[in-house]
Inverse folding.
């Protein structure tokens, strides 16, 4: 059971100041240059409170676009290798939607299902999440069809739900209790507040979809749905759970470094062998891989979905591919 | 840092380079760090990620046998950026190695059985590891047959070892080159691997078949094995897909839900029959 409290709007600054004093960076949705993304804040009035969703996801806090894994210096006949310490600055993600907060679990599944990824884990250890329940939604949202919800607590250390004059604060984890303990004066006793969130209708049953996919691999819908796909990878770039990565080299004659960067299964060269042979040579095969990875292979391998229903891919797609519609079509195929 | 960096390679010194065929080389690699060498162990079928520092990593099988201690060997063709950089290396140069990764050929389950190795072109290296592993434990297996084909005499790899296998009374070696690939003094067979295998007609009784080659060779060889009576669970192969991590994380080597880097690279035909052909 979570401890529930009332957090007055006016006390947010008290909480922010305490977190900052504790040496933590606070990242929150901020309006800047015409769009809303996570940026460092110190005061509550910097937070874009009207924002439903940032375009980019919060995954970068644990899985940066580019991360150095090692570096080296080169001399004739010799290599000196330097390990890279994981960069892990204590960070609080404030105002994450429940869908996004739950996305870190899907990243964790891949990074740690077998061997443990020290880079991801160092950042996750230093990360705390103050989530924000949804009091509105848009057409791209489908969290309730993939096991989440507009007031779901999974992934949040503290979950705030807007109420008159402030927030109902559910303190959910040890990390949440540690943050609340930094600013006890900010929290008031819960007078019996109602947790009121938006209603997101369930569009499909994910378990039934997973079963249905077992028979759809050779179905024509993947070619049909992907006809307009550009293979641009925007969907993977904004996705809170897309975890596929590339390892690239940045080097000159004296030395270099090996970097991990985001990648996308939608790109034609993602699986291309050096010989030119490509096991997924068509966009239809790559689109099918995207759907199967999230809705068939994830459940099979990790017992969870690789999708949180945030709708970021649908909003970001330059050719208006709607994930929810395509999943619905698959479920009914 | 409490957890080790999974992506940090071992530094390896190139102890020996063998020119196998046009643009094909074998490196013998020794660990620079003795503690790493002592801690290292692998089993036949496994692979690694080899670094050309400055260019990146490339995936090759470990082509040597785990019975040969103190070094590993890899055989590669110069095709892309990393293999081109590796091809420029000389004896004494340092490269990187991460591994061993992946599953293994279950040779301990094959005790007392006959083994038929069928390989084409540059795909002999993964089977060469198993062949030497089994030859170094020769009394555990019955008949050992090797059918190896390449486009031309020049394209045959491990030429010295082919001679050594040909000279062994306990190995039945059949080497063939594609029609037109023979030289005037060629004494081996001329013909593609599938018909040569069909003519040889090894008995499937108590026999394991290992097949590795270019996709077209595998595609035409499997029906031959089926006609000869080999069951799908008695036919083994090893897949290669593009990989970055080798750790089941980077997300590109999967064929269906199976990660070639973790669940493979070794598969039976029975297993492949239940997977989509994304390789």
């Amino acid at each position: 059971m979570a401890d529930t409290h009332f957090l007055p709007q006016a006390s947010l600054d008290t909480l922010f100041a305490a977190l900052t004093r504790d040496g933590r960076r606070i990242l929150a949705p901020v309006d800047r240059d015409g769009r809303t993304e996570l940026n460092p804040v110190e005061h509550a009035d910097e937070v874009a409170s009207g924002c439903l969703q940032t375009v980019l996801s919060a995954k970068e806090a644990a899985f940066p676009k580019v991360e150095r894994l090692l570096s080296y210096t080169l001399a004739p006949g010799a290599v000196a290798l330097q390990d890279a310490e994981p960069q892990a600055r204590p960070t609080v993600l404030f105002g994450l939607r429940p869908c996004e907060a739950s996305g870190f679990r899907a990243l964790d599944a891949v990074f740690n299902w077998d061997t443990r990824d020290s880079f991801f884990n160092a950042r996750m250890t230093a990360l705390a999440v103050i989530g924000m329940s949804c009091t509105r939604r848009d057409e791209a949202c489908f969290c309730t069809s993939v096991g989440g919800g507009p007031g779901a607590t999974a992934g949040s250390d503290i979950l705030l739900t807007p109420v008159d004059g402030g927030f109902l604060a559910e303190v959910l984890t040890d990390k949440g209790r540690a943050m609340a303990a930094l600013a006890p004066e900010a929290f008031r006793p819960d007078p019996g507040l109602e947790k009121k969130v938006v209603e997101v209708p369930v569009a499909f049953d994910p378990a039934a979809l997973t079963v249905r996919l077992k028979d759809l691999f050779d179905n024509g819908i993947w070619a049909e749905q992907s006809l307009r796909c550009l293979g641009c990878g925007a969907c993977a770039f904004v996705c809170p759970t897309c975890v596929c990565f590339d390892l690239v080299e940045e080097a000159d004659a004296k030395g270099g470094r090996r970097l991990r960067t985001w990648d996308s299964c939608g790109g034609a060269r993602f699986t291309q062998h050096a010989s030119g042979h490509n096991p997924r040579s068509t966009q239809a095969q790559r689109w099918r891989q995207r759907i199967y990875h999230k809705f068939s292979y994830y459940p099979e391998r990790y017992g969870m979905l690789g999708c949180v229903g945030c709708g970021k891919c649908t909003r970001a797609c330059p050719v208006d591919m709607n994930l929810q519609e395509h999943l619905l079509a698959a479920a009914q195929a | 840092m409490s957890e080790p960096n999974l992506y940090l390679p071992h530094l390896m010194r190139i102890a020996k380079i063998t020119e196998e065929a046009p643009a094909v080389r074998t490196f013998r690699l020794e660990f620079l760090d003795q503690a790493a060498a002592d801690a290292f162990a692998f089993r036949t079928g496994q692979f690694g990620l080899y670094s050309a520092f400055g260019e990146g990593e490339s995936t090759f099988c470990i082509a040597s046998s785990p019975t040969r201690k103190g070094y590993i060997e890899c055989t590669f063709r110069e095709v892309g950026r990393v293999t081109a950089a590796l091809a420029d290396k000389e004896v004494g140069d340092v490269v990187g190695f991460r591994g061993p990764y992946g599953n293994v050929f279950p040779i301990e389950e094959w005790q007392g059985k006959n083994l038929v190795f069928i390989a084409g072109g540059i795909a002999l290296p993964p089977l060469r590891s198993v062949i030497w592993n089994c030859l170094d434990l020769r009394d555990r297996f019955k008949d050992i047959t090797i059918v190896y084909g390449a486009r031309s005499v020049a394209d045959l790899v491990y030429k010295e070892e082919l001679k050594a296998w040909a000279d062994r009374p306990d190995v039945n070696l059949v080497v063939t080159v594609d029609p037109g690939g023979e030289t005037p003094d060629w004494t081996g067979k001329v013909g593609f691997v599938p018909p040569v295998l069909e003519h040889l007609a090894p008995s499937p009784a108590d026999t394991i078949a290992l097949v590795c080659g270019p996709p077209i060779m595998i595609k035409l060889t499997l029906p031959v094995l089926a006609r000869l009576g080999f069951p799908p669970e008695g036919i083994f192969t090893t897949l290669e897909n593009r990989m970055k991590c080798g750790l089941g994380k980077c997300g590109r080597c999967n064929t269906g839900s199976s990660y070639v880097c973790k669940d493979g690279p070794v598969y039976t035909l029975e297993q492949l029959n239940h997977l989509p052909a994304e390789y």
Q: What stands out?
A: Chain B has two domains: 10-101, 107-238. Chain B is about 20% helix and 30% strand. The longest strand of chain B covers residues 10-21. Chain B touches chain A at residues 1-9, 11, 53-58, 79-80, 83, 92-94, 96, 215, 240-242, 244-245, 247-257, 262, 276-279 (CB under 8 Å).
